[in-house]
Amino acid sequence: MPMHFCGKMTAGLFPLLFLFIARVLIAQETNGKPLAGGAVITNMAQFWELPSEEKDQLHRIRMELLIYYCDSKWTVFWGQSDGLDTFLPLRGIPVPLRAGQKVLIDGFSLPVNQEVLWDKTTVKILSESNELKSVSAKGRLFDTSTLDKHFVELEALVDSQRLISTNILRLDLLAQNFNFTANVLMDQPETNPPDFSGNFVRIDGVYSATFDALGKIASITLWTDGLHFVVTNGSLGSDSRFTLPITSSENFATFDPNALAHVQGIVRSQQPGQAVTIWDNAGQIRIYSKQEYPLQVGERIEAVGYPAFQGIDRVLQGGLFRLTAGKEVGPKEISDGHSKLRLADQVRGLDQETIAQRLPVSLEGVVTWVDPRRNFIFILDSSGGIRVMRPQNPDGRRLRAGMLVKVNGVTAMGEFTPAITNATVRQTGTMSLPDPPLVSLEEAMTGTEDGRWIQMRGYVRKSSEETNSIRLQLVAPGGEFIARIPKDNTLRTLNGSVVLVRGVCVVTANARRQLTGIQIWSPEVSDVQIEQSAPADVFALPLRTLASLRQFKQMLQRRPLDVPEALNNLSKMLRRIIGEHIYLRIQCADHLPLVFADAVNFEQIIINLAVNARDAMPRGGPLTITADRVVIDAKYQEREPDAVIGTFVRLSVADEGSGMSETVRKKIFEPFFTTKEVGKGTGMGLATVYGIVKQHQGWIEVESRPGVGSVFRVFLPVAEEEAQKKSESGNGRIGAADVQPRTIFLVEDEAPLREMASMILKRLGHAVVVAQDGQEALSLWPQHRGKIDLLLTDMVMPGGISGRELADQLLRESPGMRVIYSTGYSMDLSSSDIKLVEGVNCLPKPYDATTLIRMVEKALANGNGH
Q1: Whether pLDDT at 45 is above 50
Q2: What is the pLDDT of residues 231-249, one digit of tens each?
Q3: CA nearest 530: which of 497, 493, 485?
Q4: Stretch 46-66: mean pLDDT
Q5: Which residue, among 185, 171, 183, 179, has the nearest Cα to 141 in the 3D structure?
């Protein structure tokens, strides 16, 4: 449950104020004046269904509750009242309760920011050890309509466990191929609780689900009141499925995909909660498993699951794995144990002395590049890519990219990395080349990507024609690289564009095999994707979506800003954005000076950092935002070159999430850099924060450790004394042009962006109607027809109705309405029948607060946004 504190002001003054109000109202009751509503509340459903005008009034409550779960530290519990299951976040009731007790709650209650403030309330235990009847969740883990907030029983595998406090044991569970958690409350603080890891358990507790912006299940948590509700039913070590005969990866093609297979091998890599890659005696197997138990490269494991082919990959679906006996080994030891090398990465892992022995190689893969003179080809197999020199095709067919082939040859040293030579290459089929990983120039310059199928992003500085290809010179963060693509007339206008190029990474080297450059060889013209046509300012290319440096500086509405007040105003929206699984704490030092900052951009800094922290804690955890005053001197500046001498307010945003390596930490503020899956992140969130802070003459420091968490520290300069005095006489409202308050229809499917835009527009005085897609917008339209002044809609949305289609329907009934389209795609691709002009009727995403304000004010002032 998110909670909020902000210095002594909110932690002390506000609760006391509400208690004072409560006592006044109670005193009024004794004088014969009735309480709000008149009736006594007997269950929480009545409480939350009160009319909005009564929400902030005192109410008499007398309720019997059967306890399912109670945490006296957080003062929250679940239980059953009048046959209804309910959740109660409390304050001011220190009575320790436990599951199975029936209690009577008698007193007065006031709803405050989704919490309940109690006064003059007593809790009386009516009976002990009542039977708790659980609902079975077997086979219907995702039936939230039946299970949410109910006391349930389910069976699961305990993947791992850890103490998250002195009296709460967190179990990471796996059932129905889904990861979820159980928070088990222990009667007494224990430093060595029972170890359930690797065991199958039956567990009872209160089921609680959270949902993402599209309504899909984001997380499931089970709240369990006591270790006695966790019963061990077996373990992976005794699982009979691991007694099946062992299947080799070379037999996957003939194995029944509906039959369970048992495999063994040596760990090559792991993505916890997603997949484990192993080598067996015949090749590579990718095991898709939701288990998050950490494995080390070289460990021996066995797994059970359902075998399948995915392109060139042998995979095991729905896998469960466990460690097996045997010493850890390395790639060379794996290779030495077989008569033939079966994988590209096995060959690449050999030293020069071993390569010179011309060991036999037999592998299967897909052709990714063919030399026009046919002197060599590149092959991609399930482990990686490799160069094949002097290929011979006995069938006489001309080799081309996309052919599935079987290669037999011997090891040799290539121009930079090991290769295969004297190889016979036989076609076995065809396939589309897979989507490659996005690689930065810095990663490519290590040389490890040589021969692999990758994609890179860059700005085209120059293009020129060569004999068999077009040569592109591209600029990327850290330097330049070359791309070679087939000749095509449509590619002559690439200069000045941002492109995504996929192809084979080829390292150029000198005679001593020292890396001198990176090239990408693309087999098809379609392997070049234009992301942005030539931007006006080449050097500001990475910050293009943030607006140019000069414009951005001019748009800032900087004024003295009260940090605690700004954080208090933002806290409610932050809770909605981060979700209930994140525990929010905001703490401000006393007597903080004002900072000289733009209010909406300050809020965007906090929102972006909070979203980043939320994504680092998919299973929940604490998010702490603090603010204090610091004085920077010359000695501090020596340690932190970006620091500036003077007095600053330091904002710290700390999480206990996955953390990051030093390599990732150094790159997090680079535009487009993201560690998320394709389609899950733009890589602009932290770059936006960096740009805003720099324009406020501040800086950012980041501290992070893998598995421990991260702390982002933002330093903002304090306002001068004269400016602070001036601020005290002002009203603190966001500076804006003289635009009368209007009604704006905001349609946006991305929840964080929707929340931020709505908040900004409301702060400007506008009324905002919000919908998450076109379908919802059409359902809301009849209530607001004729009242909408401006439609701000995403161009591409789920649900089958685009922004253009929505606007067309609404404009037929309200032709005077202005329209602004928001899009994260190229303006040329977003719509073929409407001219989108940036700054007029098109708002490119991601956008900052000042860009939004400027466009809305312009549209409303001009009376024409469509």
Answers
A1: yes
A2: 999 998 889 999 999 988 8
A3: 497
A4: 76
A5: 179
Amino acid at 255: F
Closest CA to 848 of 702, 727, 738, 693: 693
Burial class (CB in 10 A: 0-12, 13-18, 19+), 557: middle
Mean pLDDT for the stretch of residues 688-704:
82
Q: Residue 455 is encoded by which pair of tokens?
A: 């994609």
| 8 Å CB contact between 419 and 388 | yes
Q: Is 739 helix (H, G, I), strand (E, B) or coil?
A: coil
pLDDT value for 694: 79
Query: Sheet of 709-717: strands edge to edge?
Result: 582-588, 621-632, 646-655, 709-717, 699-705
773: exposed, middle or buried (Cβ count in 10 Å: 0-12, 13-18, 19+): buried
Place of tokens 């309330």: 121
Q: What is the pTM of this model?
A: 0.50
Model pLDDT, residue 116: 54
What would the DSSP string read from start to end of 190-242?
-SS----TTEEEEEEEEEEEEE-TTS-EEEEEEEES-GGGEEEEEEGGG-GGG
CA distance 671 to 478: 13
Positive/negative CA dihedral, 175, 181, 186, 189: positive
Residue 262's pLDDT is 93
Report residue 678's pLDDT band, with 50, 70 and 90 as the boundaries. very low
In angstroms, what CA-CA distances link 143 with 232, 288, 769?
24, 24, 31
The tens digit of pLDDT for each residue in 291-333 reads 988 888 888 999 999 998 887 888 999 899 998 865 444 444 4
Q: Of 383, 369, 453, 376, nearest to 421 (Cα)?
A: 376
SS3 assignment for 251-304: HHHHCCCCCCEEEEEEEEEEECCCEEEEECCCCEEEEECCCCCCCCCCCEEEEE
| CA dist., res. 131 & res. 110, Å (int) | 31
Q: In a 3-state reduction of DSSP, which class is residue 831?
A: coil
What whole-number distance in Å separates Cα of residue 763 and Cα of residue 76?
33
Q: How far apart are CA 606 and CA 578, in angstroms?
A: 12
Confidence of residue 769 (pLDDT cuts 50, 70, 90): very high
Residue 505 pLDDT more than 90?
yes
SS3 395: coil
pLDDT > 50? residue 828: no
Q: Is the pLDDT score of 439 beyond 70?
A: yes
Instruction: Inform me whether the pLDDT recorded for 431 exceeds 80.
Output: yes
* Backbone dihedral region for residue 621 (phi beyond 0: left; psi -120 to 50: alpha; all else: beta): left
Distance, in Å, from the CA atom of 339 to the CA atom of 460, rounded to the nearest integer, reads: 47
* Residues 387, 349 contacting (CB under 8 angstroms): no
Q: What are phi and psi of 703, to 5 degrees?
A: -125, 130
Q: Check whether 770 has a pLDDT greater than 50.
A: yes
Return the beta strands (E) in 555-613 as ranges.
Answer: 558-561, 582-588, 595-598
The span from the CA of 105 to the CA of 72, in Å, is 15
- The number of angstroms, rounded, from the C-alpha of 466 to the middle of its chain's C-alpha atoms is 43
Least confident of 109-123, 354-368, 643-657, 775-789: 109-123
How crowded is residue 119: how many other Cβ atoms within 10 Å of its Cβ? 19
* Distance of alpha carbon 192 from alpha carbon 272, whole angstroms: 25
Contacts of 302 (CB under 8 A, 6+ apart): 242, 246, 262, 263, 264, 321, 322, 324
What is the DSSP secondary-structure string of 633-661? -HHHHHH-TT--SEEEEEEEEEE-S----
Question: How confident is the model over 487-496, as a mean pLDDT?
Answer: 68
Paired tokens of 363: 């592998």
DSSP 12: I
Which residues partner with 792 through β-bridges? 746, 820
